[in-house]
Structures are given as structure tokens and as C-alpha cells.
Amino acid sequence: MESTPRGLRRHIALFGKTNSGKSMLFNLLTGCDNAIVSEKAGTTTDPVLKNMELLPFGPVTLIDTAGLDDTTELGKKRIKKTRDVSRRADIGLMLADVNEINNANINGVDYKDIFSGKKIDVFTKCDLINSQDLKNIKEQFPNAVFVSQDDPQSIELLKNTLVQTLKEIEVSDEDSLICSLVPRGGTVVMAVSIDSEAPKGRLILPQVQLIRDCLDHGVKVCVTRETELKETLAVVSAVDLVVADSQIFNIVNNIVPANIPLTSFSILLAHQKGNFKQLLKGIDQIKNLKNNDPILILEACTHNHTHEDIGRVKIPALLEKYTGKKFNFHFFSGYNINENPNEYSMAILCGSCMINKAELQTRLKLLSENNIPVTNYGIILAFLNGILERCTGIFTGANNFDRTAL
What we know:
Layout: E1 10-15, H1 22-30, E2 48-54, E3 58-64, H2 73-86, E4 91-97, E5 118-124, H3 131-140, E6 145-146, H4 152-172, E7 187-192, H5 205-216, E8 220-225, H6 229-235, E9 241-244, H7 249-255, E10 262-264, H8 265-273, H9 276-281, E11 294-298, H10 310-323, E12 328-332, E13 346-349, H11 357-369, E14 374-376, H12 377-384, H13 388-396
Parallel strand pairs: 1-3, 1-4, 4-5, 5-6, 7-8, 7-9, 9-10, 11-12, 11-13, 13-14
Antiparallel strand pairs: 2-3
Helix pairs in contact: 10-12, 12-13
């Protein structure tokens, strides 16, 4: 689990005023001194991220952030970084020094502008208050967690609360790529392209993720290149779904019989993590594009680019060929995103395998609030190849495939 990518981990962020005990709690939860602890306010500047195993739940990423009450110019920049990183968080630990409980605002900060997700109130430094006052405060805040660095049991209680909350999120937010699409005992065939973009000696993350997801849900999976796909389909019986790299859609579509559903890794990720209807609707904007319109290509990871790069070369070329127009493409990679994207006529996201669902949902919300139509690599490539209905039918019910004939 140590090698689990952050895009597949739930993220837990610690928020609070300066000296509210964030870094102390961060170290206690991770079991090592990852963050600097000091009585001096403002020791945490940039967010600190640490992958850890929160048993019995599994892999998570813990995020320590700067104090939210720093009103200096430097403090404003630190808070902006906190706001940026909060987009990734599934759970926010809202920390407050228990000794400041009598303040009109116990946290001293309005968190609504920082984090709007699932919150857990945590009161720190409980060893510095007398027992009767602590008892009264616990009665006042029955759902909060009270911790002390000298009380290991309080840290275990917080961990247990986190595990329970994460399990509740998992139940209400099924993260499977495949279980709602293919029955247990079914068969998936993966068509994988091996080109200059493919890493030597290994598969890319979405391919590995789909294989594991199939295994987790009792689905048989067969992996082949597009060059051997026809022979594979001839010997593998009862295929429920073919999943291909988006960039070889045109080749695979001509090979896969019409009675077998077809989609891509990128479209599976869009359905799993994103607002699928929003991403499908974004395709309608293509007919409205004008010459020289600015288009945002938003990548979730940084990598070396080649002449076969799907986002920076293939999609721009295919889109301009399809429309007969020229566009101004703007590329952002990693966690960089223009917080005022209303200058763009359209946005196109990658499959987003390297970011978690919370981050992707925040990006989609930002684009929606700015009235920017958005789609993703897999969906636009299916559209440009004239097979969008086929490649999304398994999600929308548009496919009328005769499964009994498989």
C-alpha cells in the first residue's frame, strides 16, 4: 500500500489557526516528525503532504496546512496555498485550541471559504485545561474529538473516527470503475497501445487500476495490444466489455463487433470520478467554437511530451481538422489551474488518474461556475471518431446490445 498513488488515496487535511496544534497532530497521526512543531506562530508555511496507512481502512494522504489567521501579505499567500490544497481533501479536520473555547468563534476562522467537504471538529491541547472545564466542553460539543499529545488513546480515538467516516464515504461513493457495468463472473478485454508514450516495462495507472478493480469484483480480464485484438476476441468467449486506449478508438472500433460494448480508460475514469453528464454535455460546445477561440487543456500530471502526445498534439490536431478552424490552446499541468477560467471557450480534461475525486470535482465545479463547457480526452476522442454514442452507451443506456448473443 505504500506505493499506492495519491490519485487513489483519500485525502485528509488539517485546518486551523496558527498554533492550534496542527503540526503536532500531523506528526502524531503519521508516527514521525514530518512537520516542524514550535511555539512560534507560522512555522508551517507550505502544505506538507504525507502518505500513510490508516488501518484498517487503507492508504490515505495527510495534509498539514498553514494557519488561517495570518493577515500579513506572506500569510495571504500561505492561505492561498492552503485553499489550493484543500480541493483535494475528502475530510477536513477542523482544529481549535480547547483553551480558546470561550471565544465567540471557537475556531476564529470561517472555514466555508476554505473547505466545504466532510468536517470533523478536533479540540487540541486538552492536557492544558482542568478536568471539569474539559467535561463541560465535551458536553457542549458531543460530536467533536478531543486530543492531547500525552494521551495516545485520544489519537487512537481520532484515527477510529477517521476510519469510520472514510468507510461511510466509501459506501455512499462507490469508487469502482467496473462493478456497476459488468456482472461478477463477466469478462473484460483491455486493448492497450504500446507507443512512444507507453512506459517501458510497465502499464500506466488506469490500466493497472482496471485490472485490480476487475479482480476485486470477480470479473475476468484479458489484456492485449490492438494488433492482437481480433485474434483475442476470436478465442475469448462471452465478452461483456472492451476497454481501449482513447487514441486507438478508430482502430479498435473497426475490430470489435457491434454487439460488444466499447469504451476507454479515460471515459471509465470520467464516470467514476467526475460529473459524467457535465462532461458529456461539454461536447455540444464544439459546434459553437470560432476561429482563434482559446481552449484550455488541463492535465493532471507532468510528463515528457512527444510527437504522439494525446493532449498536446493529437487532440488539438483532430479538433482543428474536424472543425476546419484554428484555436489557441492553453496547457496547464499538475495541480495548476487558472482560478478565473472565464477567458476560455472550452476546457478539455485528461483522464485525471493522478488526482483524486475531490480535486476533479472541484475543477468541474469551478468550470461550471464560470460557465465553461468541459469534456475529457476519452469523450472528445470518441466524438471526433464518430463513436461517442457507442462508447458511452454502457453508462447512459443508449446501447441496445444483445448480451445473450455474446
